[in-house]
Amino acid sequence: MAINNIDLFLSRPRKVLKALGIWFPPENYLLLHALYTILIMLTQYAFILFEFIYIAGVWGDIDSMSEASYLLFTQASVCYKVTVFIVNRKNLTILFEFMKSEIFAPQTKQHELILIKSSQKIKNYCMFFLTTALATVTLWALMPLLDNAGARFFPFRIWMPIGPEKSPQYELGYLYQMMSIYISASLFFAVDSVTLGMIMFGCAQLEIIIDKLQEVQEIPLSTKLRNEEKIKITKRNNELLVDCISQHQTVIRLIETVENTYHANIFFQLSGTVAIICIIGLRITMSEPSSVQFYSMLIYMVTMLSQLFLYCWCGSELTTRSQELRDRLYQCPWYDQDIYFKKLLLLTMECMKKPIIFKAGHYIPLSRPTFVSILRTSYSYFAVLNQTHN
């Protein structure tokens, strides 16, 4: 059975986005799907509105503002990313056509194993991100239930049109907040998984090209080999090199399309993560070490760091694979080949001097140094905020 690249890399986020009405609408239920999508997005945008109203009411109170701000940045990131995802669904169709193209079809069992290994790796990492996100949300949900202060309160400090004092207003408010935040966590996971899955698909294709280059055969100088056999090997090597170059160029176009579609999403996320990590760090220092809030903030910090690391790691893997491909080209037995092969190889290696670099906002390269730089920036802002608070 032939491998379906879309199912292999995007099956999990597709299921989540379908369940939340963000995926492509079914042809027979366009109106119902549109209404459902609007309802889901209203829960998210209303949350942001309530956050703004609350922050305006407590302006000047560092404790209350910091507790509300990290959630505001998170929700803003979710709403922006999902909105861009919906607007750019046509580009997603183009990306699917790339993934289904014949040149990306695995030709051997080894190619299939490379695709399966890469897809499983990104699935596991994204699942860790989702697990920490859901664990954080669950702890937030438990805080009002485990608090012994006596007075009831909602899980999040946002303005609400109803109060927690009476029933069923409290139950309705609690249900809305938790439903919205669980939807938010699921959307975060799904939208990011689509982008990360496609980047890792590009990495897998570069690995496949490296595997193909190992099939380039030497052409012995021995006179025992007939001219017909030499011509046959030379022709096969030339065709193999042309095929690898075509596949590499298609990978570049795929990554460029992914970057053009989601670069603003990732830039917004990286910028927001600086503020979120900074504020979470401040909230951790303000919380009791044995409280539920302390552990929820700690796990939330792990969630945001894992999300940031995932983007930077995938971008770094893509750049590393493209550099490795250039090295492998030079290591193939090019010295035995005809002049056509040598000229084509020289031209290809010159073009590959510039590795494939995925950039957020067409400006910030996704790499491990970027991850470290963001952590340093976040810590600098945290130190200033913590000093101001003290």
UniProtKB/TrEMBL annotation:
<feature type="transmembrane region" description="Helical">
    <location>
        <begin position="125"/>
        <end position="146"/>
    </location>
</feature>
<keyword id="KW-1003">Cell membrane</keyword>
<feature type="transmembrane region" description="Helical">
    <location>
        <begin position="266"/>
        <end position="286"/>
    </location>
</feature>
<keyword id="KW-0807">Transducer</keyword>
<dbReference type="GO" id="GO:0004984">
    <property type="term" value="F:olfactory receptor activity"/>
</dbReference>
<dbReference type="Pfam" id="PF02949">
    <property type="entry name" value="7tm_6"/>
</dbReference>
<comment type="similarity">
    <text>Belongs to the insect chemoreceptor superfamily. Heteromeric odorant receptor channel (TC 1.A.69) family.</text>
</comment>
<dbReference type="GO" id="GO:0005886">
    <property type="term" value="C:plasma membrane"/>
</dbReference>
<feature type="transmembrane region" description="Helical">
    <location>
        <begin position="34"/>
        <end position="56"/>
    </location>
</feature>
<keyword id="KW-0552">Olfaction</keyword>
<keyword id="KW-0472">Membrane</keyword>
<protein>
    <recommendedName>
        <fullName>Odorant receptor</fullName>
    </recommendedName>
</protein>
<dbReference type="GO" id="GO:0005549">
    <property type="term" value="F:odorant binding"/>
</dbReference>
<keyword id="KW-0675">Receptor</keyword>
<dbReference type="InterPro" id="IPR004117">
    <property type="entry name" value="7tm6_olfct_rcpt"/>
</dbReference>
<keyword id="KW-0812">Transmembrane</keyword>
<feature type="transmembrane region" description="Helical">
    <location>
        <begin position="181"/>
        <end position="204"/>
    </location>
</feature>
<feature type="transmembrane region" description="Helical">
    <location>
        <begin position="292"/>
        <end position="313"/>
    </location>
</feature>
<keyword id="KW-0716">Sensory transduction</keyword>
<keyword id="KW-1133">Transmembrane helix</keyword>
<dbReference type="GO" id="GO:0007165">
    <property type="term" value="P:signal transduction"/>
</dbReference>
